[in-house]
Amino acid sequence: MKISKSLYTSLFCASLFVSCSNIKPKNEVVQDEKPVVKKKLSKHKTWANDARKSVGSVDTETLIAGSAEINPSNYDGKTYFLYGAEHLKLDNYYFDIPVVYNEATKKWIKYFLTRGRGFFERYSARGGRYAPLLGKILEDKGLPRDLIFLAMAESGFQNKAKSWARAVGPWQFMPYTGKRYGLKIDWYVDERRDPFKATVAAAKYLKKLYGDFGSWELAAAAYNAGEGKVGRAIRRYKTENFWNLRKGRYLKPETKNYVPKIMALAIIGKNLKVFGFNEIDFHDPIDFEEIKIPGGTDLVEFSKDMGLDFEDIQYLNPEILRWFTPPNAEEYTLRIPAGLRDTYVACCSSKEYKAVAFQEYQIRGKRTNLNDVARKFKIKKAPYVLSSLNGLSATKRLKKGSTILLPFREGQSRKNAMYADLYEKPRKVVVRRKNYRKRLRIAKARGKRIVNPSKWYVVRRGDSLWSVARKTKTNLDTLIVSNLSILNRRQIRAGDRLAIR
Question: pTM of the entire structure?
Answer without folding.
Answer: 0.77
